[in-house]
Each structure stands twice: as structure tokens, then as C-alpha cells.
Design the sequence.
């Protein structure tokens, strides 16, 4: 998971937006439309980042297909300190 987090957050151009999405989901579960509105980012951009985060077991979905909510995975939450370390080094 640590290598995946370094890649997702620090190793690619969209890392800042993915970190913002993670922080929003830490506050409470949201759907893609809510995240796009909260972060002032295009819906398709948010969907792209969510797919990447889902592929690397950072987020998971719950609920119905329409308006499905995204949650942080237990596996990711276990690595929260590593996420914090990575984001601190980006600032």
C-alpha cells in the first residue's frame, strides 16, 4: 500500500486532487457529484481519480450505482500515517 500511495499522491500529476478527495472522504462518505461540487473540479475528473483510488484499494463504493457513495477502505485507513507523511512532503 505504501508504494501505491507514493505513486497515487506524489508520483503523478493528479496527486493533489486525489489527496483532496481522500480528505473529503475522511470527513464523510460522498458520491462523485458531491465531491466535484465540494472540490470545484469537473465531474469526469473526479470519476477518473476515484477509479484510480478504487483500483489501488484506497476507496470502495457502497449503495446503488446511481449516486453511489465512496468510502475509504479499512486497508487505507490502516496506512493513514503514511498518507500524512506523503502529503506533508508535497507542501
Sequence:
Amino acid at each position: 500500500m505504501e508504494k501505491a500511495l507514493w505513486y497515487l499522491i506524489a508520483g503523478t500529476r493528479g496527486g493533489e486532487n486525489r489527496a483532496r478527495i481522500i480528505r473529503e472522504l475522511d470527513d464523510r462518505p460522498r458520491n462523485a457529484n458531491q465531491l466535484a461540487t465540494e472540490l470545484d473540479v469537473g465531474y469526469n475528473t473526479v470519476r477518473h481519480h476515484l477509479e484510480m483510488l478504487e483500483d489501488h484499494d484506497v476507496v470502495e463504493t457502497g449503495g446503488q450505482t446511481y449516486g453511489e457513495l465512496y468510502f475509504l477502505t479499512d486497508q487505507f485507513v490502516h496506512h493513514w500515517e503514511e498518507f500524512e507523511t506523503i502529503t506533508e512532503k508535497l507542501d
Summary: Strands lie at 59-62, 69-72.
